Amino acid sequence: MNIFDIHIHIQPWEMLKPEVISMLSDPSHANAKDILSSADNVVRFLDSERVERICCINYVSPDVMGFTRETNDWIANFTRDHRDRLLPVGSVNPLHEINVRDEIRRVLDLGIRMIKIHPPHQLFSPNAYKDGELWQLAEIYRECEDRGVPVMFHTGTSIFPRARNVFADPMPIDDVANDFPRLPIILAHAGRPLYGETAFFLARRHANVMLDISGIPPKALLRYVPRVADLAGKIVWGTDWPSPGVVSPRKNVEDFLALGLGEDVERKILWDNAARLFA
Questions:
Q1: How far is Cα 198 from Cα 24, in angstroms, rounded to an integer?
Q2: What is the pLDDT of residues 202-254, one digit of tens each?
Q3: Threshold 0.85, pTM exceeds
Q4: Domains of the chain
Q5: Angle, alpha carbons 222-205-267 (nearest 5°)
Q6: What are the distances in angstroms from CA 53 to CA 8, 56, 84, 124?
């Protein structure tokens, strides 16, 4: 069975703030720095883990994480020779751009395949365009909708310093899904740990909303998303590697398969849904 992991962090780690780096140390990832040093090494790692394709997560968060707008060019260059397997993910942060419309067009023209919005780390609500407070945010959604480029929203809390968990609730994405009905939307982490029911509701309510189950230990998946089988056609696989606690992408797959959900459900989640989304 092919594996499409849409949530692996392939980022310019040298941009990270020192206090963030200290929270990411994990003995099981002692070799992660070497793996992430080149695209060729990442591809070899994927081969060893039996993972066919991944989305390389990046987002602009200078205030919380340290990632600046240059991360878009970095991931575009990093993945250039392996776009069949390494799909670059980028971001535009309207709090740090004068002309969001030009920047989202420039970023997508680099070949970025998905835009990541991380409300607790980017410090705005997904629907902040509604009251005019951050009206340029709508430019991001509109351009992605026109091009059929998915937008992934982080949903759920964050423990990193300076993160604002007032933005962790995914319910404001209900506005985005209504206002941009052709925009493919992915709710990363399915709202864990506090907003699973809200994320599940949004995925059932809106035809253009899907769940990404990265960051949820597979053994605990049925506790966070009890009706996985009912929503199998709208769930995409992700691991959040190399986040602490994620030993390896393959180990997560094995733990997921051990749940015994059946081959049809497993195939949809591990490959079919993401392959269709990024065809």
A1: 28
A2: 999 999 999 999 999 999 999 999 999 999 999 999 999 999 889 999 999 99
A3: yes
A4: 4-277 (3.20.20.140)
A5: 45
A6: 10, 10, 7, 31
